[in-house]
Design brief:
The N and C termini lie far apart (about 90 Å). It contains 7 helices and 16 strands. The chain has a 5-stranded mixed sheet with strand order 3-2-5-6-9, with no helix packed on it. The protein has a 5-stranded mixed sheet with strand order 10-15-16-13-14. It is of the alpha/beta class and about 325 residues long. It is about 20% helix and about 25% strand.
């Protein structure tokens, strides 16, 4: 029998594993395909398919099919090898978030050691495993777009308006994930998008028909995967913005006699006797700072032995 303490520990372990699976949803893609003999077209069994530079890989089954899961988005290279066949390297395989990159390989048998065969992967126009409206944006595309924020970039897509309004919905109806973690303000349920564009590896925008793995979303899902650090290189960027000389505020100048800060002291209807003299309505009084009037200010100065008329007090203020 399992004691109560061990039972609780087992429950926590199971919950932790399930939480990891939820957090990592929507951050990786897949490479799959079939390996056959180049001469006969027969499927090859037990062929090793490895993603170059990683520990990810798979072996073909009895029908020659393979599938490599949990591949970070970006451009990858796979190496296909087996004793008795020439090694095949497939370059420029573009892996997108939540999508499958199909790569079929033909291998030629060899009697002696031969060179490595290199192939450039083709980009399929029609994605058979995608049933929703998906747009994928990578770093090289981000650099060419006239945007400075995630919000601006998403707004350039068809069916999306500024403020993460997807297909006429509200910002609170969409889901923003960064590395699998939901970025949402608990106060208003709107996405938190203060992410540096230079740290992004890929952005996937789904505008309908998204999978059931995404909850709390009605209009669309934006998945962002950030870049990983490189132990051998440093990377940085500088963004420069400039604008011609112009007014740095909206509306009239703060020094204008009718501005919010000046009108109580300059308007002849209230400046002498105060803002509560009845000349202004209660609504208007609430829009401006309260002021007792220059007459009262002059009286205060006279009590201190300073002889200033109300007009002189106003002149000093000016």
């Amino acid at each position: 029998m399992v004691s109560g303490q061990y039972r609780i520990l087992i429950y926590f372990v199971i919950l932790f594993v399930l939480t990891i699976n939820i957090v990592l949803a929507g951050t990786t893609g897949k490479i799959a395909g079939r390996v056959v003999d180049k001469e006969t077209g027969e499927p090859l069994v037990g062929i090793n398919v490895v993603v170059k530079g990683t520990s990810l890989g798979a072996a073909t089954d009895i029908d020659g099919y393979y599938a490599i899961l949990s591949i970070p988005p970006g451009t990858h290279t796979i190496v296909v090898s087996m004793v008795g066949y020439s090694t095949v390297t497939v370059n420029e395989i573009r892996v997108l978030i939540d999508q499958t990159a199909t790569v079929n390989v033909e291998m030629a048998s060899q009697a002696i050691e031969a060179g490595i065969v290199e192939v450039i992967a083709e980009r399929h126009i029609v994605k058979k495993d995608v049933s929703s409206s998906v747009s994928a944006i990578q770093p090289d595309e981000l650099e060419s777009l006239p945007v400075t924020s995630i919000n601006d970039m998403v707004s350039l897509q068809a069916g999306v308006e500024g403020g993460f309004v997807i297909r006429g919905g509200n910002a609170s109806d969409m889901l923003l994930n960064v590395d699998g973690a939901t970025q949402r303000d608990p106060r208003n349920n709107k996405p938190i998008s203060n992410i540096a564009l230079t740290s992004i590896q890929e952005v996937s925008i789904e505008k309908g028909g998204f999978a059931a793995e995404y909850g709390q979303a009605r209009t669309g899902v934006v998945n962002i995967v950030q870049k990983e650090g490189d132990v051998a290189h440093y990377y940085g960027s500088i963004n420069v913005k400039y604008s011609p000389p112009q007014q740095k505020y909206f509306g009239i100048s703060e020094y204008d006699p009718n501005s919010m800060w000046n009108r109580p002291y300059m308007d002849p209807t209230v400046c002498w006797t105060g803002t509560n003299n009845g000349a202004w309505s209660i609504y208007t009084q609430n829009q401006y700072p309260k002021f007792v009037g220059w007459n009262a200010i002059s009286q205060q100065y006279l009590q201190q032995g300073i002889d200033l008329s109300p007009a002189a007090c106003q002149r000093i203020y000016e």
